[in-house]
């Protein structure tokens, strides 16, 4: 065996030993228990039917399975991160791996997209409570993180800084930069002497954004330029405003941004982040006027962005979220003029083209994104999307199959929602009805059983229809 062969063998052995060696767990958090709660509810309903049928032993067994075994499985089901791999651990994932032969793990380098959605769970005065849900997708695998507690924040701090920024949407970038511990956030609020939330209840965000025009800035820059200490404090207020926005403390975030904008009114990043705050407030309060102000602030930020292609592409993404399709398109085009290989702008243009039904443009932009991607996973994602839409564009049979799949998927989702409502109403009638007429209870239980079966069937159908079909192109 020559030296080169020996070196290759030794390298292979070293890699194998590293793969097999135990890794240090940096962070872990529980999987969202929604699936376990749904299963527990279905089993509980089944136990009620068994009890009505006189099968007391099996009814008791089902109750124990639903309210003792399922919670234990949910508590044991965790997502762990060791600095390189995301793994799902627990008894239920082990059983799935045993029967499917596929381990639930994903290398950080193989991540393709990270998308985060925010759901308002509570609104009180100027604050809302957000529940964030981050979906990580890569190479046929996916993980979902739901916010709640210290474990979630620890996972984000360990994992998200390792992910290429082009793989993150705007909300995920905000979480990576500004998610903070509640105690630390309260200390920063006291340190920077923000007014308490109850004092800010009557405050308004109707203040001027952007300061003077560009020619006025040049004329007066030497006269009224802020002191270095004021600029440093304004940057601290900017960061605090973003942290408060992520935490849902929107009134206090508005006050922090107001003070920062009074000192540095021309900072394009500050104006962009203030626009995102306005959008959050507009969504929380259902205020069209605030949404209009958010759009205006985004336009101003784009004007002040200069040659910062990264900021311009983020502005375009937020404009698209605000419903400004045409302006978002122009903003993405500006970002590409500044940087021809801007991956985020290419994906944004593909999204705009998809919304307007221009499949050829969608394919072009995805292919350009794949060509200019600096990461293998990014190139793979864009290339796969380009191939998918190319098939839709070139093969009428495939297009018909996909349209039929999407229609069935939408119908399955509608049936599932309707079945859930009918089940709840039928159970309520089944519990109350016998006090008025004995026949009502039996009819309601039968109706609830049918609704539960429809709910389970629609759930399974939605799971099967969620994945794209990959038939061969017609010859």
Q: Any overview of this molecule?
A:
There is one protein chain. The chain has 19 helices and 7 strands. Strand 5 (113-124) and strand 6 form a beta hairpin. Mean pLDDT is 85; it is low at 9-21, 214-223 and 471-475. The two termini are 50 Å apart. The radius of gyration is 27 Å and the shape is globular. By secondary structure, the chain is an alpha+beta fold. Helices cover 65% and strands 10% of the residues. The chain has 3 domains: 24-178, no CATH class; 182-212 and 230-394, Tetratricopeptide repeat domain (Serine Threonine Protein Phosphatase 5, Tetratricopeptide repeat); 397-465. The strands form 2 sheets. The protein has a 4-stranded antiparallel sheet with strand order 1-2-3-4.
Question: What is the structure about, briefly put?
Answer:
This protein has 475 residues and is α+β, with helices and mostly antiparallel strands. It contains 19 helices and 7 strands. The protein has a 4-stranded antiparallel β-sheet.
Low-confidence stretches: 9-21, 214-223, 471-475
Main sheet summary: 4 strands, antiparallel
Spatial strand sequence of the major β-sheet: 1-2-3-4
What would you say the CATH architecture of the largest domain is?
Alpha Horseshoe
> Separation of termini?
50 Å
The helix count comes to 19
Strand content: 5-15%
Number of domains: 3
CATH homologous superfamily assignment of the largest domain: Tetratricopeptide repeat domain
Structural class: alpha+beta
Q: CATH topology of the largest domain, what is it called? A: Serine Threonine Protein Phosphatase 5, Tetratricopeptide repeat
């Amino acid at each position: 065996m020559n030296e080169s062969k020996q070196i290759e063998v030794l390298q292979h052995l070293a890699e194998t030993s590293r793969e097999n060696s135990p890794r240090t767990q940096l962070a872990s958090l529980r999987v969202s228990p929604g699936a376990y709660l749904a299963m527990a509810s279905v089993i509980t309903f089944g136990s009620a039917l068994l009890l009505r049928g006189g099968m007391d032993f099996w009814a008791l067994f089902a109750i124990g399975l639903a309210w003792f075994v399922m919670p234990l499985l949910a508590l044991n089901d965790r997502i762990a991160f060791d600095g390189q791999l995301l793994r799902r651990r627990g008894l239920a994932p082990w059983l799935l791996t045993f029967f499917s032969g596929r381990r639930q793990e994903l290398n950080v380098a193989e991540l393709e997209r990270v998308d985060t959605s925010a759901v308002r769970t509570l609104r009180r005065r100027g604050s809302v409570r957000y529940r964030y849900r981050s979906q990580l997708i890569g190479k046929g695998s996916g993980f979902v993180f739901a916010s709640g507690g210290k474990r979630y924040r620890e996972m984000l701090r360990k994992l998200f800084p390792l992910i290429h920024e082009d793989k993150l949407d705007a909300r995920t970038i905000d979480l990576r930069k500004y998610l903070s511990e509640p105690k630390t956030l309260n200390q920063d609020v006291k340190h920077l002497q923000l007014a308490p939330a109850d004092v800010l209840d009557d405050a308004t965000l109707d203040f001027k954004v952007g300061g003077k025009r560009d020619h006025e800035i040049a004329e007066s820059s030497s006269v009224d330029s802020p002191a270095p200490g004021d600029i440093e404090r304004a940057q601290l207020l900017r960061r605090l405003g973003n942290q408060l926005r992520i935490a849902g403390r929107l009134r206090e975030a508005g006050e922090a941004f107001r003070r920062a904008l009074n000192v540095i009114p021309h900072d394009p990043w500050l104006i962009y982040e203030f626009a995102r705050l306005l959008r959050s407030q507009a969504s929380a309060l259902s205020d069209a006027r605030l949404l209009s102000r958010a759009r205006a602030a985004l336009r101003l930020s784009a004007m002040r962005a200069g040659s910062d292609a990264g900021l311009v592409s983020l502005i375009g993404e937020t404009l698209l979220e605000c419903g400004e399709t045409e302006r978002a398109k122009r903003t993405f085009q500006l970002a590409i003029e500044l940087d021809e290989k801007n991956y985020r702008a290419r994906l944004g243009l593909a999204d705009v083209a998809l919304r307007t039904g221009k499949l050829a443009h969608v394919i072009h932009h995805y292919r350009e994104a794949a060509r200019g991607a600096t990461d293998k996973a990014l190139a793979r994602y864009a290339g796969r999307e380009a191939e998918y839409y190319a098939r839709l564009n070139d093969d009428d049979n495939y297009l018909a199959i996909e349209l039929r799949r999407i229609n069935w998927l939408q119908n399955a989702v509608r049936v599932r929602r309707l079945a859930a409502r009918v089940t709840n109403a039928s159970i309520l009638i089944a519990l109350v009805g016998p006090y008025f007429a004995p026949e009502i209870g039996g009819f309601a239980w039968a109706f609830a059983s049918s609704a539960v079966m429809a709910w389970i069937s629609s759930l399974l159908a939605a799971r099967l229809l969620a994945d794209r079909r990959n038939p061969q192109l017609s010859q």
